C-alpha cells in the first residue's frame, strides 16, 4: 500500500532530491510540496498525508515549531525531519519525529525512513501497540552510506563514496570531484565529513576533504604543510594545512 507523503523545505533543489529518491522507491504517493511553513501547513490540512518530510531551518516558523502545530491536528502525519543540522536531533525527538535525515540524502536512509513509516502505519491499522522511541532519531546515518546524491545542472546523480576523489567547500555548497567529473552537493563540508569518514575520507584543510585511497603522492610544502597528488584524470593537487598534516600522516600509517 502506497504511503501518502508531503514535502516541506524552503529550498527547491532539496525538494527535488527528496522527490527523486521517493519516486525511485515506488512506495509513496507524493501529494504535494511547499516552500514555506505556512504553505506546508495549509497543504497538510488540505491533503491529509500519512507522512511528511520537513526541513528545520526555514524563514518564519522553523520546522520544530511547525511540528508542534502539526501534532495538534486531528490526524497528524508521521514526521521525518530532513536537514543539514545535527544539533536539532533532541528537539526532534521531543516532538516525536519518526526519523531524522541529514543532508546529503542517500537512497538507503530515505528508504529506511519510509520502511519505518510503513511499519508504524501497519501497526496503527491493526490496532497493535506502537513502540515508543527511546532515544533521539539521529544516529544511524553514519556508516550506512552507499551512494551520495549530487547534482550537475538539473540532473541528480547518485555517486558511490569510492568514486569520490576529493571535495572542496564553496559558498553554500560543496564541489565534489569524482572519477567521472565534477558535481555539486547542497551540503556543508562538516556534514559530508561525518557521513564519509567511515569510507576513509579525511579533512586535510578547512575547505577540503580527501579520499585517502586516492592519494598517489605526498609533496612536502612550506611550514610543515604538504600537498597531495590524487589519482583522478587531472592528477589534482590538494593542499594539506600544517594543522591537519600530522593527523593525516598518522591515519595513512594506521591504514597500511
TrEMBL record:
Transmembrane segments: none annotated. Keywords: DNA-binding, Phosphoprotein. The keyword Nucleus does not apply. Residues 4-118 form the Response regulatory domain. GO terms for molecular function: DNA binding; phosphorelay response regulator activity. It holds the Pfam family LytTR. Residues 153-254 form the HTH LytTR-type domain. It comes from the Bacteria. The modification 4-aspartylphosphate is found at residue 55. This is DNA-binding response regulator. It comes from Geomonas limicola.
Amino acid at each position: 500500500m502506497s504511503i501518502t507523503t508531503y514535502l516541506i523545505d524552503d529550498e527547491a533543489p532539496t525538494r527535488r532530491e527528496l522527490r527523486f529518491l521517493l519516486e525511485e522507491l515506488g512506495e509513496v504517493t507524493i501529494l504535494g510540496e511547499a516552500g514555506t511553513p505556512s504553505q506546508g501547513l495549509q497543504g497538510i490540512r488540505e491533503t491529509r498525508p500519512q507522512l511528511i518530510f520537513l526541513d528545520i531551518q526555514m524563514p518564519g516558523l522553523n520546522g520544530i515549531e511547525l511540528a508542534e502545530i502539526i501534532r495538534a491536528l486531528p490526524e497528524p502525519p508521521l514526521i521525518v525531519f530532513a536537514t543539514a543540522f545535527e544539533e536539532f536531533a533532541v528537539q526532534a525527538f521531543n516532538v516525536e519525529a519518526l526519523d531524522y535525515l541529514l543532508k546529503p540524502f542517500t537512497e538507503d536512509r530515505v528508504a529506511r525512513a519510509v520502511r519505518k513509516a510503513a511499519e508504524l502505519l501497519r501497526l496503527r491499522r491493526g490496532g497493535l501497540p506502537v513502540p515508543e522511541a527511546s532515544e533521539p532519531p539521529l544516529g544511524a546515518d553514519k556508516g550506512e552510506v552507499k551512494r551520495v546524491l549530487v547534482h550537475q545542472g538539473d540532473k541528480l546523480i547518485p555517486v558511490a563514496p569510492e568514486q569520490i576523489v576529493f571535495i572542496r567547500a564553496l559558498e553554500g555548497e560543496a564541489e565534489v570531484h569524482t572519477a567521472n567529473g565534477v558535481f555539486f552537493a547542497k551540503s556543508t563540508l562538516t556534514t559530508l565529513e561525518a557521513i564519509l569518514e567511515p569510507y576513509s575520507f579525511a579533512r586535510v584543510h578547512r575547505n577540503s576533504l580527501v579520499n585517502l585511497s586516492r592519494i598517489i603522492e605526498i609533496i612536502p610544502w612550506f611550514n610543515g604543510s604538504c600537498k597531495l597528488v590524487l589519482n583522478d584524470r587531472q592528477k589534482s593537487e590538494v593542499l594539506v594545512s600544517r594543522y591537519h598534516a600530522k593527523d593525516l600522516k598518522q591515519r595513512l600509517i594506521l591504514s597500511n
